[in-house]
Each structure stands twice: as C-alpha cells, then as structure tokens.
Amino acid sequence: ASLVAATPAFAAGDAGSYIGVGVTHDNFASSAEDEGFGINGVGGTVFAGYNFPLSTSAYAGFEANFDLATAKFGDNVDAVEADHAFGASALLGFRPSDSTALYGRVGYQRGRSTLVISGVEASDSADGLRLGLGLQADLSEKLGVRVEYNHTHYYGENGATGTNNNQAAVSLVYGF
C-alpha cells in the first residue's frame, strides 16, 4: 500500500476519461489519377476518450471522434465537398514534464463526401487509416489545450487508390 501511495500521480489530462472540442483545418487531396486536386476548409471536432497510465511518464488510451468538415470546391450546381467523418483511435503518450504530453495515434476513420453534378447530389462514404501526432499542454488540473496533426488515407472501392486528408487541429480538453 505504501508503494502505491508513494507513486507520483498522473496529471488529470492523462489518466482517466476526458472530452474535447476543437477547430480543424482540413486539406483533402486525391491520390488517384487526378492527383493534385484538393479542397480545403475549416471544420470542427468533438472527441471523448480514456487513458491508462503505463508508468509515471507514459500512458496508452483510446479515443472516439466526430469531425465536421466544410471543405468544398464548386457551387450548388457542380461541386465536391467533404461532409463529416467519425472514428476510433488508440493513443500512446509520453510526458516529458508534469504539464506537457506528446502522443501518437493510429486508428480507423469513416468519412463521407458529396458530389454535385448539374444540381444532383450523390453522397458516398469511405473507410480510412488515421495516423497522428500531437502535443497537449495542461492549463490546469482538469483543462488542457492540444495541437495536433492527423493524416487519414481513405481507401477507394476494391482496393483502388483513394483520398488523403491532412488535418491540423487545435482543441480544448477537459479531464474527469
């Protein structure tokens, strides 16, 4: 019991459950035959997760997210636009100091986009692999700010080359 009591406590942002909300910048780019075509937009993200301490300076966790995108090219007659995405990730983090955490993520993402041709809309969804790196700085015991980069590769049908999303996010995180 004395060893458990003597173990340094993790900051609230690392051990236990948390929720967050943030602003994103998304760059969707084709990796198929029309490589180089891309659309940009500002969006939002909400997420919730749970972290498990591995040691006094390392943790692992899982996180679920929902992203709303505004990236669009075109008008209401002919357009390509990113709608939203949701997914789940595993996180592995390290705390170089008491108030800072560096982490990486790997996960699954499902994204939806809409194509408008001559005013007729058609939506489609795709599955993707999400990889990311982030930095979290604690503002207090319960509140932190994150800066994060995520790359998601959405796969096309039947193994065809798909679309990439490079996303930068700034978020507030609240730990329970």
Strand tally is: 9
Low-confidence stretches: 1-13
Q: What does the main sheet amount to? A: 8 strands, antiparallel, barrel
Distance between termini? 24 Å
Mean pLDDT: 86
Q: What spatial form do the alpha-carbon principal axes imply?
A: elongated
Order of helices and strands: HEEEEEEEEE
How would you describe this structure to a colleague?
The chain is built from one helix and nine strands, in the order H-E-E-E-E-E-E-E-E-E. The chain has 176 residues and is an all-beta fold. Strand 4 (72-74) and strand 5 (79-97) form a beta hairpin.
Quick take:
With 176 residues, this protein is an all-beta fold.
Topology:
Layout: H1 2-6, E1 16-30, E2 38-53, E3 58-68, E4 72-74, E5 79-97, E6 100-117, E7 120-138, E8 143-154, E9 163-175
Antiparallel strand pairs: 1-2, 1-9, 2-3, 3-5, 4-5, 5-6, 6-7, 7-8, 8-9
Write a concise keyword list for the protein shown above.
single chain; 176 residues; mainly beta; 9 strands; 72% strand; disordered N terminus
